[in-house]
Amino acid sequence: MIKVSFVITVYNKAVYLPDVIAALKAQTGAFEREFVFVNDGSTDDSLAIVRRQTVGLDNVVIVDQVNQGVAIATNNGIRAAQGEFIKLVDSDDILAPFCTEVLLKTVEENKCDFVFGISGEYEKKDEIAFTDPTGAEVKVFEDPLMSVITKGYARVSHCLFRKSLFEKAGLCDERIFSQDHSLFIRLAGQGHLAQVFHEVCVSPKDEPGRIMNNEAQVVHDATLALAHYVADHQDQMTQAQRFAAQKKILARVWKWARKTHGASLFSAEFLVYALGRCGVTVSADQLVGLCAVFRKKATVRRP
């Protein structure tokens, strides 16, 4: 029987954890389950709640570590996991009861290594209402890496992937605080990717501790993840993928410099953006270096 390891990274999510764990317990489907919780140095009651709410559950692993950031916590959780498939869950996200079952079915029917669904948001718990996923549209990407570069897919609770693919891809990039951007890019560069167009999980709309509430952190991590990928894999990328990645990085850098720092058309950010638009190849090291603009006068966490 297929074994799925649910890997849940936890940092100060005490208020959400009972509902998150209840949704894990309610997952439907004929597969073996393992639950790996990584407490990333929480200072609230998160760890105690995890221990209390998982009493009676089989195959529970709890990793308790000093705070190192979500990318490192994710890697440590997956290292501890024994399942063939990994189902990541943010510790404030609620999975639909059918979430894992639908994602597994999509992987098997489409011979994929990595699948994701639609992630929604909720304001009140009692208003959460998942709809029947029967007949949901599925898309298999012809060029997964190009799709991730151009669309900028992220988040994790709507994903499921083979552990072997994750290891082959080199885990999440631990040079970056958040995990989802490098996860998508690295997995898409190695395996077959599909998307099922149905809502399989929801996140609280106004959770103050979410990384995505810090715009500088989000755009920094998304752009730096892509720049590091180019630096690490440019020999394996097609010319079209390399150019698309460069275009995305330079556009984000210029847009941020103009909007946040008032950069002009005479700025270095615009000059390199214009050169890139003209077809000039910007070195991978320079692409990485340009990401410093997102850290200027901003609070951006780094491992």
Description:
The chain is of the alpha/beta class and 303 residues long. Helix content is 41%, strand content 19%. It is built from eleven helices and nine strands. Strands 1, 2, 3, 4, 5, 6, 7, 8 and 9 form a nine-stranded mixed β-sheet that branches. α8 (215-233) runs antiparallel to α9.
What's this, in brief?
The protein has 303 residues and is of the alpha/beta class. It has helices at residues 17-25, 46-53, 70-80, 99-110, 144-151, 163-169, 180-188, 215-233, 239-261, 268-277, 284-290; strands spanning 3-10, 32-40, 60-65, 85-90, 94-95, 114-122, 138-140, 159-162, 193-204.
Please write out the topology:
Elements: E1 3-10, H1 17-25, E2 32-40, H2 46-53, E3 60-65, H3 70-80, E4 85-90, E5 94-95, H4 99-110, E6 114-122, E7 138-140, H5 144-151, E8 159-162, H6 163-169, H7 180-188, E9 193-204, H8 215-233, H9 239-261, H10 268-277, H11 284-290
Parallel strand pairs: 1-2, 1-4, 2-3, 6-9
Antiparallel strand pairs: 4-8, 5-9, 6-8, 7-9
Helix pairs in contact: 1-2, 5-7, 5-9, 7-8, 8-9, 8-11, 9-10
Number of strands: 9
* Percent range for β-strand residues: 15-25%
Main sheet specs: 9 strands, mixed
* Shape assignment: globular
- The share of residues in helices is 40-55%
Q: Supply Rg.
A: 20 Å
Regions with pLDDT < 50 over 5+ consecutive residues?
none
Tally of helical runs:
11
In whole angstroms, the N-to-C terminal distance is: 37 Å
**What is the mean predicted local confidence, pLDDT?**
95
SSE arrangement, N to C: EHEHEHEEHEEHEHHEHHHH
SSE-based structural type: alpha/beta
